[in-house]
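Lecture notes, part 5. Sequence design as translation. It can be helpful to think of inverse folding as translation between two languages: the language of shapes and the language of residues. The source text, in structure tokens, appears below.
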């Protein structure tokens, strides 16, 4: 509750308004506190699992060429209705935990957001090819996370403890989804600050400068690792900076 209050307050402070998703979540939390105190944790995990599973289905739709957009309000309202209906069941704890198990099979597909290759320019849609290595890395992780979620279905018959259900892959997929940012396969406007994150690799491995001799890093050597990601997964193309930056965050999680 304290964490949620901080998040809601921060949103209001920076955006001087109330997020629809935050408002729906607040209503749902009050509903749990008043009506279902015995399954607060299970109810919250299920609620957010439904939201992210629905978002993952949308990412599949967009990845396959879908161009329509959906709002977060629709996701929040849908998850709220589904959660309330599940709460009405006699064995609500079991259904909440089993529902979370099923949702986690879909959640890893959030990673497809990293491979979005279609952009709207004026009134046209333009596709920019994603490097093969980047697609392969996301595909491998996606398969691993889905298999992990399927393996976790062994808890189906004893679905009473939500703490034994949540998978690492689901958590990583959600974090990577929220960390993903930038302009996709579009050259950054600010090449100075963004490329500080990859300069170490360029100076040491491309120009052959010795660390602390020909090249002195002002902010450590993380730029060597991130620069390696940029060159390996992005083929060294400037337009792929944000793509490889998102992959760096994903694989660093």
């Amino acid at each position: 509750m304290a964490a949620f209050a901080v998040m809601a307050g921060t949103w209001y402070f920076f955006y001087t308004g109330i997020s629809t998703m935050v408002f729906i979540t607040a209503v749902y939390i009050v509903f749990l506190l008043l009506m279902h105190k015995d399954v607060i944790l299970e109810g919250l995990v299920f609620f957010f699992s439904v939201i992210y599973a629905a978002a993952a289905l949308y990412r599949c739709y967009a990845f396959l060429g879908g161009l329509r957009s959906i709002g977060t309000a629709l996701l929040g309202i849908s998850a709220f209705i589904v959660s309330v209906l599940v709460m009405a069941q006699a064995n609500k704890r079991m259904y909440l935990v089993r529902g979370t198990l099923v949702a986690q099979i879909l959640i890893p597909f959030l990673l497809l957001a990293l491979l979005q290759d279609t952009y709207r320019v004026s009134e046209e849609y333009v596709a920019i090819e994603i490097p093969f290595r980047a697609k392969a890395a996301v595909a491998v992780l996606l398969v691993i996370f889905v298999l992990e979620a399927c393996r976790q279905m062994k808890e189906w018959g004893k679905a009473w403890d939500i703490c034994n259900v949540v998978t690492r892959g689901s958590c990583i997929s959600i974090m990577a989804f929220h960390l993903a940012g930038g302009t996709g396969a579009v050259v950054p406007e600010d090449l100075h600050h963004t490329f500080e994150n990859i300069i170490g690799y360029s100076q040491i491995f491309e120009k052959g400068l010795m660390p602390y001799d020909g090249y002195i890093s002002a902010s450590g050597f993380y730029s060597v690792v991130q620069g390696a990601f940029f060159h390996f997964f992005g083929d060294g193309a400037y337009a792929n900076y944000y793509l490889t930056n998102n992959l760096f965050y994903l694989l660093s999680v």
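The translated text above is only one of many valid answers, since several sequences can fold into similar shapes. The chain has a mean pLDDT of 85.
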